[in-house]
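Progress narrative, work stream C.
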Amino acid sequence: MHMAFDIQNSPVGNGKLTEGQLKLSEWFVSHKLLLKKILIGAIIGIGAPFWVYSLYGFIDWAFVSGPAERANLKTILQIKTSSEALQAAAATAISFGEPQIFAGGLGKYDLLVKADNQNSDFWVELQYRFVGEGLDGDYKKGFLLPSESKYIADLGVEQSFRPRNIRFEYKDLKYHKVNPHQISDYEKWKSERLNFTISNKKFEANAIKDKKNISSLAFKTTNDSAYGYWSVGFYGLLYKGGQLVSINYIGAENFKAGEARDLQMQFYEGLPTITKYDIIPEVNIFNENAYIEQK
C-alpha cells in the first residue's frame, strides 16, 4: 500500500508555527537578557577556577617561590663560577685550638690560638678576633702559609680585669691555590724568601735588676734572602718544659736583603723557670706589597 504525504498541507510544511512553538519563541524573546546573564555566569563559573589557579601561580612565582628559586639558582651559579668557593671546597679546613691568655704587663693581656693549615698547596687569609666577658675586640688580619702551623695572636690587649670565657672568632676565610706553573717547587721558593738566620739568642729572666718582673729575649737576625721587606715580624715563644707560658712580638721595618739587626723583646710579668725559647719570623711572602721591590 502506498501512502502519500502532502507537504503543502502539513502544519510545518506550510510555513506556519504551532501554538507551542509560538509560546516558546515568545518566552525566549522575553527572557533573552536573563538567558544571556545565565550563559555568561555559566562561562564564568566554568572558567573561574582556572583563572584563580593561574592568578595564584603568578603571585606565587612573582613573590614567593620565584624569588627563592632565582636566589637558589644565583647561589648555584656563584658556587660553580666562584674560584674562592671551588678552592674552599677542594681544601682541607683550617683547624684551631683552644684560645689561651697570658698576662702581658700591668692591665694588659696576650690572647692567642694555635692554627694549623694542613694544605700543602693552599695559603689562607682570614680576619679574626678574640671575644669574651669584658672583651669585644676589632677584627685583625691574619694568614697561614701552606702546611704552616703557628700561633695567631692579639697582644697587649688593655683590660682592667683578666678577660674570662675567651672565644676565638674568624670570618672571610679565603683559600688561595698555589699556582704550580708559577711556583713549581714551593718549599724551595719559600726557603729563598723566608731565609732569616737567628743567632746570638739570649734570655735573661731578670733583665732589669731593680724591677725583677721584667725579662728580656735578645737575638740577632740576618736577612739572608735576596729580597727586602717593608716589615718582618718575629714572635718570641717561651716554654717551661713543653708548655708555652708566654709570647711576644717585635717587628723589623724596612729590612733589606743581606742586612743584620740586633733585636730585643721584653716580658713584663713574672715568669716561671724558662727551659726553652723559640724565635719565629713571619712575613706573607705571597703578598707582593710586602716586598720593598715587587717580586
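Work stream C, second folded protein:
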Amino acid sequence: MISICTLADSKFAIKFLALRESIRNHTSEYTINLLCLDDDIFKLINNNCKEVNCHNIKDLLNSDKELKKSQNNKPSFESLNLCGGNEKGAKKLQFIWSLASYYSWYCLKHCNIDDIVYVDADIYFFEDPTRILDLKDFGSIGLIENRVPYNPVNGLYNVGIVYFKNDKDGQSCAAFWKDCLLHDDNEYASAYGTCGDQKYLELFPKLYNSVFKIDDYLGHLAPWNIHHHQYIADKILWNGKLQKLLFYHFSNFKEDLKNKTYIPAPRHGILNLKNNKFVFSLYEQYFKDMESLNENIIWNDCI
C-alpha cells in the first residue's frame, strides 16, 4: 500500500484528478491525502472521491500558530522571480511552496502510516507508483534530482517527489524541512532558502545517513530536463542508465479544455513538442485524460 500526499486548490483540481486517475490506472493499493487550499476543491473531492483523505488548509491554520504566522514570511529569490517582483504574490507562492514540507510532516504524525510519498499535483504516473516502495530498504528518505546541469539557485534535487519513512530519521528529516520553511530566519536560509522549499533538500544527505536517490532506479522527466535525455524506443537514457518512465512532471501545463488545445510549458520555453515523438505522446495522453475528466458529470456539477 502506497500512501501519497499532495496539495491543490480548485484551479488545480483537474490536475489533481488526473494524478489520481494515473495512480488508479496502475494500482488499487493506494491512499491519497489531499491538502485542500480552498473550500471548492474540498467539497468536490471530499464528496466524490471516497478513498481520498481531505484536509482543509483552514483547519491546519487554525490549529497551528506557527503555520499561520509563516504566511508573512519573506519570499525566496525564486518566488519573487516568478512573480515579477510582486512581493504580495511572492509571499503567497512562498507559503504554498512551504506546504509540501508541512503536509509531509503532518501526514507522518497524524495519519497512522508506515511512510509517505509527497507528490506534486501536476505529476502523472505512466507506471505503477508502488515501485517507489521497492526502494524503501535503501533508506528512510528518498529524493529525485532535477536532472539538469547544477543551478545554485534551484539546487540539485527536485521537490516533485520526496519519500519519508515513518521512522526516527524520516520523522526527524520531515520535521527539519518543515521547520526550515516555517522560520525564514533559520540558520540555513541564506544559503538554502533561494528556491522556496527545494534547495533545502540538499541538506538531507548532509544531515542524515539514510538518504537514497530514486533516480538511480526509476526514470522520470519534466519540461526542464527533456533535452538532457536520449530516447530509445519507449525508454529514456539518463546518466548512462536506460530507464522506463515512471512519471512525468507536467509543470506549467496550460490546458484550454474549451478549445481542445494546450501549450506544454511556456514558462520553461516548451511551446510544442512535435520534434520529440516520445514526449509529445506523453502530453497527448495527459491532455486526453483531462478532457475525459472534464466531460465527467461529477466534475461539471461540482465546480
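The radius of gyration is 18 Å. No further action is required on this item.
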